[in-house]
Amino acid sequence: MLSIYQLKPKFQALLRPLTTSLYHAKITANQVTVAGCLGSIIVALIVGMLAAYQWIFCLIPIWMFIRMALNAIDGMLAREFQQKSDLGAYLNEIGDVISDIALMLVFIQLDDVNHYLVIIVVLLAFLSEYSGVLGIMIGASRRYDGPMGKSDRAFVFGAICFGIAIHLLPLDWINSLLWIINILLIYTVINRIRNGLRQAKK
User: Fold this and answer.
1) What 8-state DSSP symbol labels residue 143?
2) pLDDT single digits (tens) 117-159
3) C-alpha distances in Å from residue 125, one per residue of 4, 58, 66, 73, 119
4) Which one, of 107, 114, 142, lies nearest residue 128 by Cα?
């Protein structure tokens, strides 16, 4: 299933010089991971407190791009500079979930948005990542299948927030978009389980 995650190698190639510079500056993969998580929480708090001013939502797509870069950088630091660790694996998975939850819960601050739909998105996003991690437990790889993986969610929610910020997206349309996202998340969970089982059998 097509996913933005498939573009990751090209994105990493662009970030490799910066990653090398960070390594020489003694910045570790775990530090980058923690910075990404803390940054997501801070951005979510700022946008949540100022949600009445729609322009503030422009911070989220900007941060989503930075966060994707940080996710790619911490992975390269871990793999290419021998910084892999058990702690890093925990920080990476937990940090991504916390970041997702913080940034998506911001939508609850919008009066026109159905809070239950936001909560369902948060739960399904968590379930999709959990089903991806469970692939390892059955002898498969960590599954990143789409169509609504981490990178895809970052792109979609970043686009929605940009539309909100410039008043191009009517707020009463967001509920319909959340329904679509929820359906795609359900399919993502099914896709990761199915492909994980297929890989494990091989």
Assistant:
1) P
2) 999 999 999 999 999 999 999 999 999 998 999 889 999 999 9
3) 16, 22, 20, 22, 10
4) 142
